[in-house]
Amino acid sequence: MQWETVIGLEVHVQLATRSKIFSGSSTAFGAEPNTQASIVDLGMPGSLPVLNEEAVAMAVRFGLAIGADISKRAVFERKNYFYPDLPKGYQTTQMEEPTVGAGVIEITLEDGSRKGIRVHHAHLEEDAGKSLHEDFTGMTGIDLNRAGTPLLEIVSEPDMRSAKEASAYLHAIHTLVTYLGISDGNMAEGSMRCDVNVSVRPVGQPEFGTRAEIKNVNSFRFVERAIAHEVERQIDLIEDGGKVVQETRLYDPDADETRSMRTKEEANDYRYFPCPDLLPVILDDDYIERQRATLPELPEAKRNRFTSELGLSEYDAGILASSRIMADYFEQVMNICGDAKLAANWVQGDLSAQLNRNNLDIASSPVSAEQLGGLLVRVKDETINGKAAKQVFQSLWNGEGATADELIEKHGLKQVTDTGALAAMIDDVLAANPTQVEQYCAAEPDKRGKMIGFFVGKAMQASRGTANPQQVNKLLREKLDEKANG
């Protein structure tokens, strides 16, 4: 039997507010445990929450970016459940009337085609604390610093049909929220994580199969692996005569497997009811339009501009627009050197390779956009050749100089373009290699092209890499052909 996979994601995005959603406690990452939890975060008797307006603004901006309906009236509910890292005994969230309604997120598939993934809604809520198991033998520690941190939970429709599509959707959300500046998207720090709903059904069957929810998957790679394992588990179970039960599962990346946590609860098991401490959130058209006015150029628009206005390929534009920081870096370099393709080649090539080798992101690059742009100006005006440019780039990376011009002067890397000087140097090279000259002259004309590389190498070596390779090649051909025909 042929099976079809059906996937929906619930993506939790930690919003980049300085304080929590209902209190003034800091949201800074890395503080000592339990030093950033106030009486409001803990739900102490008599404490009252006050909604952080910036969290609402960020949710609205996200909704506008995906073409979603923005609710003029949103309501907070209490989702009641007991867990040690939720000391209040309930989570304040939105259910019946969320801030962001239905929208669409576009993803790029492996074959380059585009697909729209429907977003059912996105709602605001507070995060819970964190249970710590590693440092306590036979016990669990609780860190409540994260309790009350604002989250935007983005709930998709079950529109994805493969692990690759799910990963592409997660990447698209990561790109979008970082473009908007509403989250740093740092999955290692928990700023973005997701619950994955997976089911399988026979190809052609209209009804969905029974789904399992895999909780708190925190990397793109783990999302793909968790889905692959869960799909295989469900198919094997059904084909062996069993039934998939609706449940919550946990993905263990070390064992590369999912394990059952608990039978899936229905929404009414949580006993949702309106939060008596928070009034409905009422938004008017002016407020929504003010948020719209703050939106930056979004990834798809930037990608289209890079191809239509700058002449970049779809591939180059997609890579460069995949991160707002990378796109901004590229545009700074391009504006300085005046050549989009040259800037794209260096940002995606030498710079990205060096960043990967050192496990750095572009925001941490030791070579600034101004420095790289200055280097490419000297490549473009032929002050230096490609080999020297790589040497200067490495020196800039190592902090050996502030500018390309400084390093070019310091290491004597200016390209020799004077025809007279090059001709004299080439005469010396030919005089020093008479046997190879004779072999060239004796060869058939169609074989001489491969032989000239020897002389080019010798000439570049004699100039310590500063000769203009094109001029060297041209002069060598002229002189050698003159000898062969003379």
Salient structural properties:
single chain, 486 residues, alpha+beta, Arc Repressor Mutant, subunit A, 3 domains, 3-stranded antiparallel β-sheet, 15 strands, 40% helix, glutaminyl-tRNA synthase (glutamine-hydrolyzing) activity
Describe it for me?
This protein is of the alpha+beta class and 486 residues long. It has 3 domains: 3-287, no CATH class; 297-411, no CATH class; 419-485, Arc Repressor Mutant, subunit A (Orthogonal Bundle), CATH 1.10.10. 40% of the residues lie in helices and 18% in strands. It is built from 15 helices and 15 strands. Strands 5-6-9-1-10-11-12-13 form an 8-stranded mixed sheet. It has a 3-stranded antiparallel sheet with strand order 4-3-14, with no helix packed on it. A hairpin with an 8-residue loop joins strand 7 and strand 8 (141-143). Helix 2 (163-180) packs antiparallel against helix 3 and helix 5 (299-308) packs across helix 6 (314-320). The radius of gyration is 30 Å and the shape is elongated. The relative contact order is 0.09. The model has no long low-confidence stretch (mean pLDDT 90).
Task: Summarize the SSE layout with pairings.
Elements: E1 3-14, H1 53-65, E2 73-74, E3 77-80, E4 90-93, E5 103-108, E6 114-126, E7 130-132, E8 141-143, E9 150-156, H2 163-180, E10 192-202, E11 212-217, H3 220-239, E12 247-252, E13 257-263, E14 273-274, E15 281-282, H4 285-293, H5 299-308, H6 314-320, H7 324-337, H8 340-357, H9 369-380, H10 386-397, H11 404-411, H12 419-432, H13 434-442, H14 448-462, H15 469-485
Helix pairs in contact: 2-3, 5-6, 7-8, 7-9, 9-10, 12-14, 12-15, 13-15, 14-15
Subunit structure: Heterotrimer of A, B and C subunits.
Protein name: Aspartyl/glutamyl-tRNA(Asn/Gln) amidotransferase subunit B
Keywords: ATP-binding, Ligase, Nucleotide-binding, Protein biosynthesis, Transferase
